């Protein structure tokens, strides 16, 4: 076994270890800004197959070393946070597309493949996974499954958990494990016990996923509503009516206001060739409607006031405002944006020609004003920007983070109001409502704040922590779940609502599959401090 | 205001790890309380129960608490002692559809949840479960499973359920939003192809195939060759089917070969396209479908070991 471990590509080089020392949890960037030390793992391994993964795990058991799985590092919840004795297992060399089965509409892939590569492969053969997280260029398929990821077209294609038909992995005993939905012997429910396990129960090495044929045409439209409640009611009715939109995203009044005005439209509906999966993406230049543009949008609005002649001064002022969220929120209350909804559906041309007008009429019946194709097409072009560019707020002493939660339709508006109120003196809060389902949707909050240097009560770090504590407390109080598609990691453990029985089962499963508690200790609140 | 009933040691007369456990009164009627007591005794005597040995009398037909519609969220909060058959009819009376066609299973939902993972996957949004200790476990309320491993699946699923489902929130659809269309496609192969097409569109409330027939419950504009109202489907393929649904085997919703195989074997294939789920209904008890209930707080290791054993059983190295 030792020989096999030695043959696994690995490195102790500080640069290699630094690359996998943490994910994109924004708090880590605040820590770097404060020049706090980075905890580096002892070693990083790049196994090339399941045998090598198992060998590394077995050796780690012998050495009693924690193991932290690593995909592309795009997580934002501290799912990757190795200690100084930890070994990081970077799974990106497990990147094969094992099998495409068009008859059964499945693809089997290894965990380390980057999402965009898989989608390109499928597109070239007339299929799509239908999973488009904004991080698609910088996240792995294994990471998606481990965190219950959701893509932008989830209302039609479902979350990754809905696509996962089988999972292979290596558990903390070094054993190969496997679960499949169609396998009566293993108990089909076990797939859903491994999906979302975030490396705490096993290292996921391979999965079989459901695929769909590429849509031939699309239709997107933007509409605005007089009130947020009307917009939410319209979303719920669209989902209940069986329209099955691929995209349904409602932006709250502040987000809509910051994105700027769109004129009303009477232009006829246009059906575009190609499904949403194939729509062109532009990833340079400022976009609208996306979460990280909060800072840019604020800067743009201040620039429009023409008080400061130099951009740098404008950015500094906005940074200063973020440090005084009470004042910032009072000013922002003056924006009177109308909640904007982007809706997109896919199908063949005839089908869309029938469904499009019906859908638009239905929305108008709920009080919507037609804004034409513009908002939807613009969102489509910039839909993947979010994950590559760090907000410029960090450069001026501020911070930005996102929090995605989920609840039933009846709780959406109260939860939205409660979170905004709870954070009013801590951060500027935007929200959009996406990933709409029959029985509820996800609320995607964007927090932006600031603070002083250091770690005093007014520091950026303290305010950041306070913001999260208040948000999680509020979400929990409303009975919502604290993670819809980013995972729980370590940063949201406090918000998990485990009843005694649930926790007992998870802990028992952890102890059985990972008796030495070496697998990603701390995530999901499991095995922390054991090693 | 919800009324709660407190179960304490004095109420049930056996040991409890928790000093007090509060159960909503809708759950805690006498039959459930008796079950709690029986489960606790079973734990004390170290004699785990087989699910098949448990008989729970369904609530009376006029018990309004047994099916409560949550209009806002498209859910029905149901007593899991009812069968899908009883639930389906009560929903119909209130103007709602289950995303599954008749004949519905006459098995109680709490048992069906152990043997039919398709039901857990597609129909149940969340559950209130009773652990073998008598503790009440609510699975998270979320439109999908959301954070972490799915506890609903872990608690219900074979090989060893750790809790009994006592209430469930089922996904339901207003009858005004859906109508049923039945089409005879002439062959199982053609029906399977149509099943996959409907599933791909992800719009229908449910789609079912039996023999060469396909039934689609969809919004008013679903394409159809033959239009049949659900109330007049006696004499159709569905009318001839048995309600003896004892379990299910999940399949990929686009797995045409598996669908054809099931249809040729005389089985009924069901799908809920808006949930991206499909399964084959089984009229016999699958192996392990009469599971041993294991104790949550003191013997979860047993449950976990069973799960681990299932996960690590020899598998085909075909990948």
**CATH class assignment of the largest domain in chain B:** Alpha Beta
Q: CATH architecture of the largest domain in chain A, please?
A: 3-Layer(aba) Sandwich
Shape of chain A: globular
CATH T-level fold name of the largest domain in chain A? Vanillyl-alcohol Oxidase, Chain A, domain 3
Question: Main sheet of chain B?
Answer: 6 strands, antiparallel
Q: Segments of chain A where pLDDT lies below 50 for 5+ residues?
A: 284-292
Total number of helices of chain A: 19
- Spatial order of the strands forming the largest sheet of chain B: 10-12-11-14-15-13
Q: Report the structural category of chain B.
A: alpha+beta
What's the overall average pLDDT of chain A, rounded?
Answer: 87
Helix fraction of chain A by DSSP (H/I, runs of at least 4): 25-40%
CATH C-level class of the largest domain in chain A is Alpha Beta
CATH topology name of the largest domain in chain B: Uridine Diphospho-n-acetylenolpyruvylglucosamine Reductase, domain 3
CATH architecture verdict of the largest domain in chain B: 2-Layer Sandwich
Reported for the largest beta sheet of chain A, the result is: 8 strands, antiparallel
- Approximate strand percentage of chain B: 15-25%
Total number of beta strands of chain A: 19
What count of domains describes the coordinates of chain A?
3
- The oligomeric status of these chains comes to heterodimer
Unreliable sequence segments of chain B: 1-27, 221-235, 287-291, 294-299
Structure write-up:
- The complex is a heterodimer of chains A (531) and B (319).
- Chain A has 531 residues and is α+β, with helices and mostly antiparallel strands.
- Helix content of chain A is 35%, strand content 19%.
- Chain A has helices spanning 2-7, 14-19, 26-33, 50-63, 115-124, 141-147, 154-157, 160-163, 191-194, 228-240, 253-258, 293-304, 311-322, 325-332, 349-365, 374-381, 409-422, 460-477, 500-513, and strands at residues 10-11, 43-45, 67-70, 87-90, 97-101, 106-110, 127-128, 164-171, 176-180, 202-210, 212-213, 217-224, 247-251, 272-273, 340-347, 369-370, 399-407, 428-437, 440-449.
- The model of chain A is unreliable at 284-292 (pLDDT under 50).
- With 319 residues, chain B is an alpha+beta fold.
- Chain B folds into 2 domains: 50-173, Uridine Diphospho-n-acetylenolpyruvylglucosamine Reductase, domain 3; 178-282, no CATH class.
- Helices cover 26% and strands 23% of the residues of chain B.
- Chain B contains 9 helices and 15 strands.
- Chain B has a 6-stranded antiparallel beta sheet, with helices on both faces. In chain B, strands 3-4-8-6-7 form a 5-stranded antiparallel beta sheet.
- In chain B, a hairpin with a 4-residue loop joins strand 6 (124-131) and strand 7.
- The longest helix of chain B has 15 residues, at 30-44.
- Residues 1-27, 221-235, 287-291 and 294-299 of chain B have low confidence and may be disordered.
- Chains A and B meet through helix 8, strand 8, strand 9, helix 9 and strand 11 of A and helix 5, strand 6, strand 7, helix 6 and strand 9 of B.
């Amino acid at each position: 076994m030792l020989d096999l471990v030695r043959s696994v590509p690995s490195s102790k080089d500080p640069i290699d270890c630094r690359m996998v020392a943490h994910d994109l949890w924004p708090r880590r960037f605040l820590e770097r800004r404060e020049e706090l030390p980075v905890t580096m793992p002892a070693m990083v391994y790049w196994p090339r197959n399941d045998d090598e993964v198992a060998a590394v795990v077995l050796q780690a058991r012998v050495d009693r070393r924690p193991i932290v799985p690593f995909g592309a590092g795009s997580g934002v919840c501290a799912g990757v946070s190795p200690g100084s004795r930890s070994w990081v297992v970077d799974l990106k060399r497990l990147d094969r597309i094992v099998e495409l089965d068009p008859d059964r509409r499945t693809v089997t892939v290894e965990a380390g493949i980057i999402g965009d590569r898989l989608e390109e492969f499928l597109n070239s053969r007339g299929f799509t996974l239908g999973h488009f997280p904004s991080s698609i260029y910088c996240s792995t398929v294994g990471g998606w499954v481990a965190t219950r990821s959701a893509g932008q077209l989830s209302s039609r294609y479902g979350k990754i958990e809905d696509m996962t038909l089988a999972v292979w992995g290596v558990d903390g005993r070094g054993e190969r494990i496997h679960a499949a939905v169609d396998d009566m012997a293993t108990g089909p429910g076990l797939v859903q016990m491994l999906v979302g396990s975030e490396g705490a129960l096993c290292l996921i090495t391979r999965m079989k996923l459901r695929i769909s044929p590429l849509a031939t045409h699309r239709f997107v439209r933007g509409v605005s509503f007089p009130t947020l409640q009307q917009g939410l009611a319209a979303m719920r009715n669209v989902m209940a009516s069986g329209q099955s939109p691929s995209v349904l995203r409602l932006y709250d009044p502040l987000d809509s206001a910051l994105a700027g005005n769109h004129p009303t439209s009477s232009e006829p509906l246009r059906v575009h060739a190609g499904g949403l999966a194939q729509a062109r993406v532009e990833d340079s230049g400022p976009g609208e409607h996306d979460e990280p543009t909060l800072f840019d949008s604020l800067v743009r609005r201040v620039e429009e006031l023409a008080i400061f002649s130099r951009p740098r001064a404008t950015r500094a002022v906005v940074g200063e405002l973020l440090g005084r969220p009470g004042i910032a929120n009072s000013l922002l209350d003056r924006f009177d944006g109308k909640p904007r909804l982007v809706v997109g559906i896919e199908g063949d041309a005839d089908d869309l020609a029938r469904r499009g007008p019906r859908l638009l009429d239905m929305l108008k019946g709920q009080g919507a004003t037609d804004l034409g194709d513009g908002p939807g097409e613009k969102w489509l072009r910039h839909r993947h920007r979010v994950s590559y560019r760090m907000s410029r707020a960090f450069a001026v002493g501020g911070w930005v983070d996102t929090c995605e939660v989920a609840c039933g339709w009846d709780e959406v508006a109260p939860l939205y109001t409660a979170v905004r109120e709870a954070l009013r003196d801590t951060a500027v809060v935007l929200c959009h409502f996406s990933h709409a389902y029959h029985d509820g949707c996800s609320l995607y909050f964007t927090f932006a704040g600031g603070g002083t240097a250091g770690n005093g009560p007014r520091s950026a770090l303290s305010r950041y922590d306070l913001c999260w504590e208040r948000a999680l407390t509020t979400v929990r109080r409303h009975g919502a779940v604290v993670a819809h598609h980013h995972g729980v990691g370590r940063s949201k453990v406090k918000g998990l609502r485990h009843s005694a029985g649930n926790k007992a089962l998870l802990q028992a499963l952890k102890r059985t599959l990972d008796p030495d508690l070496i697998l990603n200790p701390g995530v999901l609140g499991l095995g922390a401090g054991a090693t | 205001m919800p009324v709660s009933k407190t179960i304490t040691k004095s109420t049930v007369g056996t040991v409890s790890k928790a000093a007090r456990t509060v159960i909503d009164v809708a759950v805690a009627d006498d039959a459930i309380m008796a079950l709690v007591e029986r489960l606790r005794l079973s734990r004390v005597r170290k004699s785990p129960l087989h699910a098949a040995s448990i008989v729970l009398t369904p609530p009376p037909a006029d018990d309004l608490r047994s099916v409560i519609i949550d209009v806002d969220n498209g859910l029905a909060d149901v007593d899991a002692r009812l069968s899908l058959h009883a639930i389906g009819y009560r929903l119909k009376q209130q103007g709602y559809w289950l995303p599954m066609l008749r004949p519905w299973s006459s098995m109680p939902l709490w048992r069906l949840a152990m043997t039919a993972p398709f039901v857990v996957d597609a129909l149940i949004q969340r559950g209130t479960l009773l652990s073998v200790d008598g503790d009440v476990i609510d699975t998270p309320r979320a439109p999908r499973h959301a954070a972490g491993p799915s506890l609903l699946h872990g608690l219900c699923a074979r090989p060893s359920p750790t809790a009994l489902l006592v209430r469930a929130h089922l996904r339901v659809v207003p009858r005004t939003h859906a109508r049923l269309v039945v089409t005879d496609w002439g062959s199982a192969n053609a029906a399977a192809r149509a099943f996959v097409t409907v599933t791909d569109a992800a719009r229908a409330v449910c789609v079912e195939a039996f023999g060469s027939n396909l039934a689609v419950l969809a919004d008013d504009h679903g394409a159809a060759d033959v239009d049949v109202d659900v109330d007049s489907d006696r004499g159709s393929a569905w009318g001839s089917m048995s309600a003896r649904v004892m379990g299910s085997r999940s399949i990929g919703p686009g797995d045409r070969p598996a669908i054809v195989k099931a249809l040729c074997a005389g089985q009924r294939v069901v799908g809920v396209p808006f949930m991206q789920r499909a399964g084959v209904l089984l009229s016999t008890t699958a192996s392990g479908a009469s599971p041993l209930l294991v104790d949550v707080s003191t013997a979860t290791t047993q449950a976990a070991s069973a799960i681990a054993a299932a996960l690590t059983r020899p598998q085909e190295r075909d990948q």
